[in-house]
Amino acid sequence: MFLVTGATGGIGRRVVRLLREQHQQVRTFVRLSSRYSELEHRGAEIFIGDLRCERDIQKACRGVRYIISTHGSDGDALALDYRANIELIDQAKSNGVEYFVFISVLGADRGYEDAPVFKAKREVERYLQASGLNYTILRPAGLASNLLVLAERFRETGMYLLIGDPKNRTSIVSTDDLAKIAVDSVSVIGARNQILSVGGPEILTREDIPRIFGRIFNKEPTIINPPLFLIDGFRGLLGIVNPQAQKSLGTFRTLLANEFFCKTEEINNLEAIFAFHLEPLESFLRRYLAV
Ligand SMILES: NC(=O)c1ccc[n+]([C@@H]2O[C@H](COP(=O)([O-])OP(=O)(O)OC[C@H]3O[C@@H](n4cnc5c(N)ncnc54)[C@H](OP(=O)(O)O)[C@@H]3O)[C@@H](O)[C@H]2O)c1
């Protein structure tokens, strides 16, 4: 039995789809408010709970052999990125789980002090490595599925908002490829007890993204490019009324201010371990946007 957290999210729903195509037994950890009917249709077991609640995690882990942790932070990195994953790892140990796959983030080891999600992910990575469990830690760059909404907006308006340096590099990964890598990690020997950076096959600059949209929709992009200090000004003001929200924006700022791309050797290594070719961003977008 696999336990998948974040099963209604961008990565999680694809992980469940692949596991069910392989006729694996899957328990999906979802909230009552989650949109989980697709998971039910695919024959997954639905476990309703909240990852902020330790007892729910304890119950969900009973009888499980593999855990794939893909949930997001929902604005609270401490409770969800950190505490929920630590509890999942503790429960994995108590229940004799054979394998733990953890979705971290590219750059988790760079020591970004202002980014609660990055800090939480790094601590969980360390805890998992010291746990004695078999594991794979995947550190993805940006997910291609996140760009679909922006692409739809571009289709209507021809506009693209790009905050910060347009020349910053990124390796957007196909969310389908990442889900496949997460699922295959439990059985592919080269992935055992590894931390792997996961990106797409090409190193893009951030301004390449509206150019790709432009090609797909045959439209010249209008790029709106405010400088990063506008975000800093906004954060300063937000801090006066909502210090918690100001803190969470630190992760967003870190994502905007830095480069997140995989080196060619890392991509070659990934393709060799999992024996398939990663999909370029344009191909992923064309498949989903049906153009
Ligand atoms: N997005 C990126 O570009 C990116 C890049 C690198 C790494 N990552 C990492 O990849 C992982 C997945 O990202 P994603 O974009 O696929 O996430 P997502 O689409 O935002 O999905 C988040 C999932 O977490 C679930 N969740 C949130 N709070 C929960 C709670 N209290 N109890 C139970 N479930 C809860 C959500 O359930 P509901 O459906 O109920 O909301 C949803 O299924 C995250 O760990 C993220 O840090 C993402």
Largest sheet: 7 strands, parallel
What order do the strands of the largest sheet run in, or round the barrel if closed? 3-2-1-4-5-6-9
Helix content: 40-55%
- Count of distinct strands: 11
Classified in CATH, the superfamily of the domain at 2-141 and 174-199 and 263-278 is: NAD(P)-binding Rossmann-like Domain
Which CATH architecture of the domain at 2-141 and 174-199 and 263-278 would you pick?
3-Layer(aba) Sandwich
**Share of residues in strands:** 5-15%
Low-confidence stretches: none
Shape: globular
Indicate the CATH topology of the domain at 2-141 and 174-199 and 263-278.
Rossmann fold
Distance between the termini: 38 Å
Give the mean pLDDT.
Answer: 96
State the secondary-structure class.
alpha/beta
Question: What compounds sit in this structure?
Answer: NADP nicotinamide-adenine-dinucleotide phosphate
CATH class of the domain at 2-141 and 174-199 and 263-278: Alpha Beta
Q: In angstroms, what is the radius of gyration?
A: 19 Å
Order of helices and strands: EHEHEHEHEHEHEEHEEHEHHHH
Secondary structure topology:
Layout: E1 2-5, H1 10-21, E2 26-30, H2 37-41, E3 45-48, H3 54-60, E4 66-69, H4 77-94, E5 99-103, H5 116-129, E6 135-140, H6 147-157, E7 159-161, E8 169-170, H7 175-184, E9 194-198, E10 204-205, H8 208-217, E11 222-224, H9 229-241, H10 243-257, H11 264-274, H12 281-289
Parallel strand pairs: 1-2, 1-4, 2-3, 4-5, 5-6, 6-9, 7-11
Antiparallel strand pairs: 8-10
Helix pairs in contact: 1-7, 4-5, 9-10
Bound molecules: NADP nicotinamide-adenine-dinucleotide phosphate.
